[in-house]
Structure formats: C-alpha cells, structure tokens
Design goal:
The chain has 246 residues and is α+β, with helices and mostly antiparallel strands. The chain folds into two domains: 62 residues, Orthogonal Bundle (Arc Repressor Mutant, subunit A), CATH 1.10.10.10; 156 residues, 3-Layer(aba) Sandwich (Chorismate lyase). It is 28% helix and 33% strand. The protein is globular and about 55 Å long.
Length: 246
C-alpha cells in the first residue's frame, strides 16, 4: 500500500496549537501571527490559516489589535464541520474512550460500495465501536473504509486513540464530506449498547468523508441518544424581499 507522507505546514501548526489549548483556560492569550511566524519559520498567511481553523471551531476569538484568545468551547458540534469524536470530547473537557465491538475485512454492501465509489462486494475495512464520554455511552459508530486504509486501521488503537489521528499520522488526510441527519427509534441492539429504552429517540448521522484529492475514504453511521448529543446549525436567512422576475 502506498502512503502519503506530506502534512500541510498550517495543519502541523494547527495540531500543535490544539495540543496547547488542552492546558489553557478561557481568556488565555495565544501567540500572534507574527509570533507563530518566528516560532515555526513560516509566512504570515500560513500562520493565519492555522489559527483560522481554531477560530472556525469556536475555540479561539481573534480581537483586532489585541490578539487571539482562548474561549469557552461551544456545547455542541456545528453541523457544517466534522471533528473527530476524540478531539470533540477533549475540546469539551471530557475524557473520550471507545469499546471496540468489531474490526474486520469484509465485502462491501451495495450501499457502502455506492458511498465509497467501489465495486459491489469489494473488500472494505469495517469497524464498530461504542463511543464514550467520561465513561457514558454517547454513540454507536459503524465506520467502513476503503481497502487502502487496511494496514493503518487494523493496527490503530481504536479504544483509547483516534481513527482520524491514525490516518493523519500515516499521511492520509481527510478534508471534507457530506452527511444526512435523521431521527430514528432505538432498536433493541441500540437500547442494549447505549443503555436507553427501546423506542427512545436517537439522532442518526450518516456521512461520507473524502480525502484531500476528493476521493471517498470513509462511510460512517453514528447513532446518538437524543439527550446526550446535539448539533448546532449555522444558517443564512433567505431574502424574501428580493425582486421576482415578471
């Protein structure tokens, strides 16, 4: 298997800053763009791009003329951004962990093959986990990845570590994707694994994640108890007063 080895410089700086944030408190000042330039030997644009990702995630507030400051993290994830569960829980000051239920190579179902753009029944890497926050079951996650990730996924620590961190460490960077969010009733299996009552409301997110080249890498279903997880939504209001052509 061929692995990519290059990590964008701004991404390396961003990861370094995220690690620092775990030891900082709201109101603490972060390095300025010029300070980051000197520390990492990069251009101002590269430093600004690294800090911008933290700003977009609601972790940092940039105040013109004063600098960048740590803020209280938002309670939920924004629906237009995907952050690895491990990072998300750490951002919220909670301890993430997982119970690994399955990790295997198996034929793709028709739906999985369509999402990953592979042939039906082509081998894929499938993992199923219960995701915990402070020991509380927060999601049942079933992830199916393309075969070229096999060496990475089969060797990764999927109980105390992050799948996406393992992929990034091997040079496979996930960049964007799309998702569908629905409400479903908990099945008997959901109830047993999540400690809820059969029929309770679940928030179900099905997403496909692409790499930096736009190729599908992962198709995942996450099933969250309605009272333990939420998604915040940003939106623009449509201008209903715009002129309508005759």
């Amino acid at each position: 298997m061929t692995r990519l080895a290059w990590t964008p410089t701004y991404r390396s700086i961003e990861l370094d800053l995220r690690a620092r944030l775990r030891t900082m408190h709201p109101g603490d000042r972060l390095p300025s763009d010029s300070e980051l330039c000197r520390e990492f030997g990069v251009s101002r644009m590269t430093a600004r791009n690294a800090m911008q990702r933290l700003t977009e995630d609601g972790l940092v507030q940039r105040i013109p003329g004063l600098g960048s400051f740590v803020v209280e993290p938002p309670a939920h994830r924004y629906a237009d951004r995907l952050q690895a569960f491990t990072h998300e829980m750490r951002r919220l000051g909670r301890v993430p962990s997982s119970t690994l239920l399955a990790r295997e190579i198996r034929p793709a179902t028709d739906g999985e093959a369509s999402a990953l753009q592979v042939r039906p029944a082509e081998p894929v890497v499938a993992i199923r986990r219960i995701r915990h926050a402070d020991g509380v079951a927060t999601a049942i996650e079933t992830a199916v990845l393309v075969r070229r990730t096999e060496d990475i996924v089969m060797a990764a620590d999927l109980e105390t570590g992050s799948l996406h961190e393992a992929l990034a460490a091997a040079g496979l960077h996930l960049r964007r994707g799309y998702a569908t969010i629905t409400a479903e009733a908990a099945t008997p299996d959901d109830a047993r694994l999540l400690g809820v009552v059969e029929g309770d409301a679940l928030l179900v997110e099905r997403r496909t994640i692409l790499d930096v080249h736009g190729r599908p890498v992962e198709a995942t279903e996450s099933r969250y108890p309605g009272g333990r997880y939420a998604l915040d939504v940003r939106f623009e209001v449509e201008d209903n007063h715009a002129a309508v052509p005759a």
